[in-house]
């Protein structure tokens, strides 16, 4: 398996575990000193913190995975995952089509950095942007 294929597989497996959600399994794909930053500059310590954050923001949320793009660097591979989020807001309103982009750095078989961007904050501020509102 190429370095690129291995990095994409690690990220894909991490995302699948995150959506279950199984933060313990998700953590196995991350380095112990992983740096996780969510939209708005929110720093997360680990996958358990991601799960706790998502429980506060959504009744439930999943990703419709789109494409994976990558670039190889001297000592790591950067993997981008993009697609859309779908789920339910805490008040029970469904949503879908919420764009996301996640950027991962994979080094020595582990995710060492994860950056997350999505439309959720904008949709919370302006519910008319939600395609299912």
UniProtKB/TrEMBL annotation:
Pfam families associated with the record: SnoaL_2
Coiled-coil portions: none
Annotated InterPro entries: NTF2-like_dom_sf (IPR032710), SnoaL-like (IPR037401)
Occurrences of domain SnoaL-like (ranges): 11-114
Top-rank taxon, per record: Bacteria
Stated name of the protein: Nuclear transport factor 2 family protein
């Amino acid at each position: 398996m190429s370095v690129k294929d291995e990095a994409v597989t690690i990220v894909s497996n991490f995302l699948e575990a995150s959506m279950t959600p199984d933060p313990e399994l998700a953590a196995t794909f991350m380095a112990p000193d992983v740096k996780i930053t969510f939209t708005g500059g929110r720093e997360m310590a680990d996958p358990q913190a991601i799960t706790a954050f998502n429980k506060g923001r959504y009744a439930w949320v999943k990703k419709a995975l789109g494409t994976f793009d990558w670039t190889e660097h001297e000592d790591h591979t950067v993997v981008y995952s993009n697609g859309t989020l779908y789920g339910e807001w805490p008040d029970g309103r469904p949503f879908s089509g919420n764009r996301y982009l996640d950027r991962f750095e994979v080094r020595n078989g582990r995710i060492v950095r994860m950056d997350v961007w999505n439309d959720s904050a904008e949709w919370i501020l302006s519910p008319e942007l939600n395609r299912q509102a």
